[in-house]
C-alpha cells in the first residue's frame, strides 16, 4: 500500500512538472515599475516662491539626486517604467506536434526613465518644477517594426 501511494505521488509530481511548459500562453504582457511614479496630481501642492524643500520632501520623499550650483539647487526624482509584449504564433503547434513545437515569437517593448525635477533658490524655496518623460520607449508594441 505504501509503495502504491509513493508511485501515485511520483506520477503526479512528474505530470505537474511536465505541464510547466504549458503554463505560459501564446500572449505575454510584462510590466516593471521602479520607484513610486509621480503624477501631476501628486505635485499640485507645489507653488513656486512659497513651497519650501521640507514640504516637498515630506510629500514626495527624499530625492534621488541633489545638484548645487552657485545660485540654485536642483533635486531630481527618478521613476522607471518598463513594458514588454510578446506573441508566440507557434504556441498552438505543441498540440499538433507534441515532440517539436517551434517558437515563433514576435514582441517588443522597452524601459524608460522619467524624471521630476524641482529647482530651488538660495532660501530653499521652489523656483520651478517640471517633468521630463521618455519618448515612446516603454509602450506595448504588437508589431516590432516602426512606421
Topology:
Layout lengths: L1 H17 L8 E8 L18 H8 L4 E4 L4 E16 L4 H4 L8 E16 L5 E7 L15
Antiparallel strand pairs: 1-3, 2-3, 3-4, 4-5
**Share of helical residues:** 10-25%
Low-confidence parts: none
The span between the termini is: 66 Å
Q: How many individual β-strands?
A: 5
Mean pLDDT: 81
Q: What does the largest sheet look like?
A: 5 strands, antiparallel
Sheet-strand content, in percent, reads: 25-35%
Shape: elongated
Backbone structural class? alpha+beta
* Total domain modules: 1
Rg is 26 Å
- Secondary-structure element string: HEHEEHEE
Helical segment count: 3
Keywords:
5 strands; alpha+beta; elongated
Structure description:
- The chain is 20% helix and 35% strand.
- It has 3 helices and 5 strands, in the order αβαββαββ.
- Strands 1, 2, 3, 4 and 5 form a 5-stranded antiparallel beta sheet that branches.
- The chain starts with a helix and ends in a 15-residue tail after the last strand.
- The model has no long low-confidence stretch (mean pLDDT 81).
- The chain has one domain (26-132).
- The radius of gyration is 26 Å and the shape is elongated.
- The protein has 147 residues and is an alpha+beta fold.
Amino acid at each position: 500500500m505504501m509503495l502504491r501511494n509513493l508511485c501515485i505521488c511520483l506520477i503526479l509530481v512528474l505530470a505537474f512538472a511536465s505541464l510547466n511548459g504549458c503554463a505560459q500562453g501564446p500572449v505575454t504582457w510584462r510590466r516593471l515599475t521602479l520607484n513610486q511614479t509621480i503624477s501631476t496630481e501628486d505635485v499640485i501642492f507645489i507653488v513656486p516662491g512659497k513651497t519650501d524643500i521640507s514640504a516637498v520632501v515630506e510629500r514626495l520623499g527624499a530625492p534621488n539626486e541633489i545638484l548645487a550650483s552657485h545660485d540654485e539647487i536642483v533635486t531630481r526624482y527618478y521613476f522607471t517604467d518598463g513594458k514588454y509584449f510578446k506573441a508566440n504564433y507557434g504556441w498552438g503547434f505543441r498540440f499538433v506536434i507534441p515532440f517539436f513545437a517551434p517558437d515563433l515569437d514576435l514582441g517588443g517593448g522597452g524601459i524608460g526613465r522619467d524624471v521630476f525635477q524641482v529647482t530651488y533658490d538660495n532660501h530653499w524655496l521652489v523656483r520651478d518644477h517640471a517633468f521630463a518623460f521618455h519618448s515612446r520607449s516603454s509602450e506595448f508594441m504588437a508589431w516590432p517594426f516602426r512606421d
